[in-house]
Amino acid sequence: MKSWYSQKLALDQAYKNSISQRIEREWGAIFCNESNPSFYDANHAEIMAPVTNAEEVVREVISFFESRQIIPRFYIYHPEQCADLLGSLSSRHFTFEEFEDRLLVWNGLVTIQPPDMSVEIERVITENEQAACQVISGTPELGSEDMRKIAFAAERSNPVYSHYLLRYEGEPASCACLIRSEDAISLENVATLPAFRGKGLIRHLISYMQQEVAKQGINSFFVSPINERVGRVYEKCGFEPIGETLRTAHAFRGGKSVSEIRGNS
């Protein structure tokens, strides 16, 4: 478990560092991207371990973000160990939501899909990146259209990302990306436009990306599903749970919850 966990944390950090400026603090880190203020992953305080000066940390984070007209928020790992911090946040009227994130790892067997002449999959390059952006910014579960467009532009300029586009009958329909950090890869931003759902397109996309990962000789290929329904799709495509969950909390002072955005509530 520790090996999987450390690899997944390294992938998470590579992802956040690609979309935001990381500011180290004694108690953790602040991520800030003033050009995309509504992107939660790019604007938050990250708490990885219990803090000894909860009130001071909360005051610092609130002041930092409010001075930039950004909603203060915290991503807290292992919230069950952070009672003092949660109490301080509650007294300052933060809203909370907790998650038990399941980590799935690919078993190395490519999921074979029956041929479908309506499906075409291609690596995203300059010529087709507008079509891919159309898909990712048009998928409501990934956030607002403007936020996703800004984030996608940043991702495209960063070498840790590889994006893929699926066309259905010639029309942009689905997309996803791979994020690599050293000897591990994660599957992220899997999206299908609402008009193309129910056709099993994601399975075709996953199969194609599994083949791409296999070509790179990577053994650690992760995905963290946003809900149980999505998780069942990944499990049918050869991703297996590692047996434990990671508890995290999102504390925020405004805007929608992550659950609302994902459509889980």
What does it look like?
The chain has 265 residues and is of the alpha+beta class. The chain folds into two domains: 2-101 and 245-262, no CATH class; 105-244, 3-Layer(aba) Sandwich (Aminopeptidase). Helix content is 34%, strand content 31%. It has helices at residues 2-19, 54-66, 83-91, 129-137, 145-156, 201-215, 228-236, 258-262, and strands spanning 21-25, 28-32, 44-47, 73-77, 95-106, 119-123, 161-168, 171-181, 184-192, 220-223, 239-252. The chain has an eleven-stranded mixed sheet with strand order 1-2-3-4-11-5-10-9-8-7-6. α2 packs across α3 (83-91) and α4 runs antiparallel to α5. The two termini are 30 Å apart. The model has no long low-confidence stretch (mean pLDDT 91).
What is the total number of structural domains? Answer: 2
Order of helices and strands: HEEEHEHEEHHEEEHEHEH
Fourth CATH level, the homologous superfamily of the largest domain:
Gcn5-related N-acetyltransferase (GNAT)
Number of helices: 8
Please provide the count of β strands.
11
Oligomer: single chain
Indicate the percent of residues in helices.
Answer: 25-40%
Shape: globular
Task: Based on the coordinates given, report the CATH architecture of the largest domain.
Answer: 3-Layer(aba) Sandwich
| Main sheet: strands, sense, barrel | 11 strands, mixed
State the separation between the terminal residues, measured CA to CA: 30 Å
- Give average pLDDT, whole number: 91
Order of strands, main sheet, comes to 1-2-3-4-11-5-10-9-8-7-6
- Strand content is 25-35%
CATH fold node name of the largest domain: Aminopeptidase
- Radius of gyration, in Å, reads 19 Å
pLDDT < 50 stretches: none
Overall CATH class of the largest domain: Alpha Beta
Structural class: alpha+beta
